[in-house]
Design a protein that fits this description.
119 residues; mainly alpha; 4 helices
Length: 119
């Protein structure tokens, strides 16, 4: 299961970054390119997981569309909330650093915030 999941994610990431790069050639806004590529990637990632990871068919019927709608809802919520959660965690970390005096954590916190923003 783990190998199939990695394969599915790998294919999905290649498609996402390929579409993102292609869109950047036509659209000057990186934010719009990210949003469009991300929106498309949710559909193919769901389809790839369904077929490769779980071995289900790709018959597009009302059950499939309902499942895909739920996935879009979850990813949209995550996409919208991610910057707020990341900023909240960074703020809490900065408060901790200020109160405890462990300045060496600042570099780690900034790197963590950057990585969190990617997810």
């Amino acid at each position: 299961l783990w190998v199939r999941y990695c394969l599915s994610c790998g294919i999905s990431n290649v498609l996402y970054f390929g579409l993102y790069s292609l869109l950047l050639g036509f659209i000057t806004s990186a934010g719009i390119s990210v949003a469009l590529a991300y929106g498309c990637s949710v559909t193919w990632q769901h389809a790839l997981h369904r077929v490769i990871v779980y071995g289900k068919n790709l018959k597009v019927d009302s059950g499939y569309l309902k499942e895909l709608g739920g996935i879009y809802a979850a990813y949209t919520i995550a996409f919208v909330l991610n910057p707020f959660i990341t900023e909240g965690c960074i703020s809490l970390g900065n408060v901790y650093i200020a109160r405890s005096g462990v300045d060496w954590l600042k570099d780690w916190l900034e790197a963590l915030g950057f990585m969190g923003s990617l997810f």
